[in-house]
Amino acid sequence: MWLNDTSDLVAALKLRGAQKVALQFPEGLKRQAAAYATALKSAGFDVLVSGDPCYGACDLALDTLALADVLVHFGHAPVDERQNVIFEPSRVDLAPAVLENALPFLHGENVCLVTTIQHVHRIPEMDAFLTSKGITVHVGDGSTRTPYRGQVLGCSFNAAKVPGAGTVLFVGTGLFHAIGIAIATRARVIALDPLTGIAQEVSGDTLLRRRFAVMEKARGAQSVGIIVSTKSGQQRLALAHYLRSLSPRATIITMREVSPDELLNLGFDCYVNTACPRLAYDDQVRFPVPVLSPQEFEIVCGVRTWDDYTIDEIP
Ligand code: SF4
User: Fold this and answer.
1) Ligand 1 pocket, 279 CB below 6 A?
2) Which residue owns the Cα nearest ligand 1 atom 4?
3) What does the alpha-carbon distance between residue 134 and residue 291 come to, in Å, rounded to a whole number?
4) Which helix (H) or strand (E) holds 227?
5) What are the pLDDT digits (tens) for 207-248?
6) 91 touches 147 (CB < 8 A)
7) Does ligand 1 have an atom closer than 6 angstroms to the CB of 155?
8) 85 ligand 1 Cβ < 6 A
9) What is the pLDDT of residues 46-57, one digit of tens each?
10) Quick one: CA dihedral 287, 290, 294, 296, positive or negative?
């Protein structure tokens, strides 16, 4: 069981004078809900658990918070300022020696080190390990969405944008962040999976080819739906208004969950996604029609050139 010592959480809740406490877990941690609820009930709190799907701190259970004094969001760091929300990021430990596997790719260069929230607490040890191997390590500042130095998110690669670091070392699972960093920074990117120990150089070329094909398909669209998320940390209404101004065929659509079935039912020829940027990149094969990023729609509308293509990030 993952259940951490809850004494700090209990103290934080008491400090806020909370009596009714709402708990929210992302999909991978939901099985911890019963254990946390039991522990907090024993400490005297009235506990509610949000059972809705959740994939990030961008999707706070504000409806459930309305029934409680405080919401405890597990698994992620905050992506924006929120009152009455306590964030309990999950930590997954790693042995810094696993970085040995990335050394053959680093060639003693200046390296920018980034990782996800699960491993960000190990940045100092990873930095020390690489430095001991003669590598000059840079750890970039985050952003309002990524409060920790060296932290990246699928919608924010700010910490990877360190001038002078020709190589970015991403430590984390999956390749999406590494590919996003490659497109956002145009630097050489090495991805190291700390669980399997596999290190590899990553390029954005395949994604760019796929996105070019999607844009070509979207050019003939007679109707364009500009998707605006109603989730707390994904709503980009001003961007949607700007995008709508680029085409008389565009209409703003608000949605909570963006699913292939809903897009099919709505019947637009093409969509532009201002919700979680990963939707367009990761899920295009599931969607019935092209789903463009905001920058791709700008290219289709002729207000941005292909040379200025960049990955979508939420500021
Ligand atoms: S918008 Fe997407 S990538 Fe960003 S935090 Fe939310 S789920 Fe993650």
Assistant:
1) no
2) 155
3) 45
4) strand 224-229
5) 999 999 999 999 999 999 999 999 999 999 999 999 999 999
6) no
7) yes
8) no
9) 999 999 999 999
10) positive
